[in-house]
Amino acid sequence: MTDTEVLQQHPLVQEFASAHDDPELYQIIEKTNPTLKMLVDVASEIMEDDQ
Prior knowledge:
Layout: H1 3-9, H2 11-18, H3 23-32, H4 34-48
């Protein structure tokens, strides 16, 4: 199992990535917390990675 696959199974990565599914939530994060936005963006990239 690759590091990416392990991360894709982690509940926090899945939760952060799911913020992209809610445009209103993502917009709030984008306007108020740049660090959290970065985590959401990285988690989304991890979940989209084709291994």
